[in-house]
Specification:
five-stranded mixed β-sheet; 5 strands; Glutaredoxin; 9% strand; Glutathione S-transferase Yfyf (Class Pi), Chain A, domain 2; 200 residues; Glutathione_S-Trfase; 8 helices; alpha+beta; 2 domains; EC 2.5.1.18
Length: 200
């Protein structure tokens, strides 16, 4: 498998999961501006959407969109319990959580990268984000991870996008359980290895 990634991007989430599962994969860096890979290939030929993550399977198929990639990887090794089994209510809950992260957290923080937005608009985006943070904080006050069964692909995704908060001077200590969650996930060996590889 090949994971196409960019530093500081949401592609960190499947990178973490690949390492959690100890899968063999090739890590290929993408320049988000030129849309070329580190070896000079046209990334748009691999993923016409033009953004990471993209996971190229050994049969040549390319899978895009973080939540889909995360679930695909988890299902390769169900014994690792990074996702509940397909067809169970717990899996539906996981999908609910992934959708919430994708639309409300990833989407919200993503808008803050737009330099053309005036400060008043960014303040409104943050106001909405903070309400969503409060919801997550309530969950994480009750349990260490988003799913009751322990660390899952949802945690890898949330950890990844919450790393952007500091870029916008958002102090997660305003949501203590969320801050503890970030610190907890940051200590996982797979997370440390993924971050180190992306900085290399």
């Amino acid at each position: 498998m090949k994971l196409y990634y960019a530093p500081q991007a949401c592609s960190l989430a499947p990178h973490i999961v690949l390492r959690e599962l100890e899968l063999t994969f090739e890590l290929i860096r993408v320049d988000n501006i030129s849309k070329t890979t580190a070896d000079g290939d046209d990334f748009l030929a691999i993923n016409p959407k033009g953004y990471v993550a993209a996971l190229q399977l050994d049969n040549g198929e390319v899978l895009t969109e973080g939540p889909a990639i995360l679930q695909y990887l988890a299902d390769l090794h169900p014994d690792a319990k990074l996702a509940a089994a397909q067809g169970t209510f717990e899996r539906v809950r996981l999908q609910e959580c992934l959708n919430f992260i994708s639309t409300e957290i990833h989407g919200g923080l993503g808008w803050l990268f737009n330099s053309r937005f005036p400060d008043e608009v960014k303040a409104l985006i943050k106001e909405k984000l903070f309400k969503r943070f409060a919801v997550l904080n309530q969950t994480l006050e009750r349990q260490d991870y988003l799913m009751a069964g322990g660390f899952s692909v949802a945690d890898a995704y949330l950890f990844t996008v919450l790393r952007w908060a500091r870029l916008f001077e958002i102090d997660l200590n305003g949501w203590p359980a969320l801050a503890r969650f970030q610190a907890r996930v940051d200590q996982r060996p797979a997370v440390k290895a993924a971050l180190a590889a992306e900085l290399a």
